């Protein structure tokens, strides 16, 4: 069970602390307990209810009416109200609330609704990706548990894999060829999977090698497949002090090939990049890069 201060609730929900206190005192939407020093603390149920209440109030519902709803009525109302495809904040709040109660069916409905309304790529960029960032912060601060984080990660992974499977095949000799992989020991795959989707959607051919690939294997891959580009994501591997050495070895094993390097380990580092190596800072930068490369090919 989480133990949250009112400032925690404010930062997670976006609702000001004085509004939370007013809703608590006037409408009884939360049931905090007090410490021996008379400080309010809130539990997971309080946070989940606040997120649902905030979602409905943000849609114009009156707090006096929302406060009277049961938990089941709240959840149903939240799904019904999250129909504006461009109201990303409300959709993310609803997803967070469903995550806290490990409500997999509701998570699936909300994600499917965003995909249906926005299209797959925009739903990932504007809803799923910011939602994952919020989940990551909550996990780091102990506000959600590993099971909740795994539920979200695996559900979004499933959606991306389904999206990839629905794309038409691209002949390898008629398109720019990419190799995508994660370094040995690296298991954080969602960004690489989305890159795979984005490339295939733009009629690029991808040899997707996935997680945990020893760097020594890339020489044979490049000889057999002759890629134009090799891309990877560095999230937790290698050690930050070894990133430069890893990039150098990657360039040595894939001579003459463009390298696209993405991920948090590349941020805030003074790196010497090999020729033809690029670091897109954001996923939108990566999408702009592949659009530019696609246009160059068509000229």
UniProtKB/TrEMBL annotation:
Residues 3-72 form the HTH merR-type domain. Residues 175-299 form the B12-binding domain. GO terms for molecular function: cobalamin binding; DNA binding; DNA-binding transcription factor activity; metal ion binding. Keywords: DNA-binding, Repressor, Transcription, Transcription regulation. InterPro entries: Cbl-bd_cap, Cobalamin-bd, Cobalamin-bd_sf, DNA-bd_dom_put_sf, MerR-type_HTH_dom, MerR_fam, Meth_synthase_dom. Gene3D superfamilies: 1.10.1660.10, Cobalamin-binding domain (3.40.50.280), Methionine synthase domain (1.10.1240.10). PROSITE patterns: B12_BINDING, HTH_MERR_2. This is MerR family transcriptional regulator.
